[in-house]
């Protein structure tokens, strides 16, 4: 009778992985907000400086065009959010906090718009270059507040198995 608790090594499996070379994936690149105004963790613009980690992966013009489109959306939507936030704070006591719902909904809509833009950019350009952009919420370095950053992740290249 076979021993069901015993662990046996599969030699074929080990040989299969030894033949393939998998390159390590670099750390993601983080682009932080560079604006002077932040609403619910979303800055009014992102830094347009080309990161050194993207050299030879994407053209600086493409990077600046993408950041320009992102900053264009933020330029249109965040001033409206700030006005609603101010009105909501003024009326907060009278409405028991319900006056803040419009600015929360507008903030979510801005995030969804940015997510859709990044999805379009990824599918049309960046996935072909082995990159994936996304809006990511992370904790600030200096305090316990949360902020939204652009996170550029490197897509690992899958090795092609060629039987000998």
TrEMBL record:
Keywords: Membrane, Transmembrane, Transmembrane helix. The keyword Membrane applies. The keyword Membrane applies. It comes from the Eukaryota. Residues 44-134 form the Golgin subfamily A member 7/ERF4 domain. Pfam families: Erf4. It is found in: Membrane. Coiled coil: none annotated. Its main location: membrane. The chain crosses the membrane at residues 84-104. InterPro entries: CHIC1/2 (IPR039735), Golgin_A_7/ERF4 (IPR019383). GO terms for cellular component: membrane. This is Cysteine-rich hydrophobic domain 2 protein. The lineage of its organism: Eukaryota, Metazoa, Ecdysozoa, Arthropoda, Hexapoda. The gene is CHIC2.
């Amino acid at each position: 009778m076979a021993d069901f608790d015993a662990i046996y090594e599969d030699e074929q499996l080990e040989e299969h992985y030894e033949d393939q070379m998998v390159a390590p994936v670099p750390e993601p690149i983080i682009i932080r907000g560079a604006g002077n105004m932040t609403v619910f963790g979303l800055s009014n613009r992102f830094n347009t400086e080309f990161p050194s980690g993207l050299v030879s992966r994407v053209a600086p013009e493409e990077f600046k065009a993408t950041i320009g489109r992102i900053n264009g959306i933020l330029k249109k939507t965040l001033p409206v959010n700030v006005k609603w936030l101010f009105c909501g704070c003024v009326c907060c006591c009278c409405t028991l906090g319900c006056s803040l719902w419009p600015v929360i909904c507008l903030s979510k809509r801005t995030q969804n718009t940015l997510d859709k833009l990044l999805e379009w950019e990824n599918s049309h350009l960046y996935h072909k270059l082995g990159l994936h952009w996304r809006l990511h919420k992370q904790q600030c370095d200096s305090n316990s507040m949360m902020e939204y950053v652009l996170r550029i992740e490197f897509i690992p290249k899958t090795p092609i198995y060629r039987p000998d």
